[in-house]
């Protein structure tokens, strides 16, 4: 595992240490790793959503949706 040193203002350092002590974390590094994992998951979710939006926008003009016809077709 690589090491990275970061500089934090005292207030942030205290926050990290407190969260690490109060949460299910062994130490401050565990807490920071969890924050990074959450940020990565959030970014992936945003990318997935943006891709779906782009596909929808590029799929052509909208068509009128008839829920009754949909249900009839679904029933067979």
Write the layout of secondary structure elements.
Elements: H1 10-22, H2 28-57, H3 67-75
Helix pairs in contact: 1-2
Protein name: Helix-turn-helix protein, CopG
Keywords: Toxin-antitoxin system
Family: Belongs to the ParD antitoxin family.
H/E order of the elements? HHH
Rounded to an integer in angstroms, the radius of gyration calculated over CA atoms is 23 Å
* Coarse structural class: mainly alpha
- Oligomeric state as shown: single chain
**Stretches with pLDDT under 50, minimum 5 residues:** none
Mind describing the biggest β-sheet?
Answer: none
Helix content: 55-70%
Measured between the Cα atoms of the first and last residue, the distance is: 58 Å
Task: Summarize model confidence as the mean pLDDT.
Answer: 95
Q: Number of helical runs?
A: 3
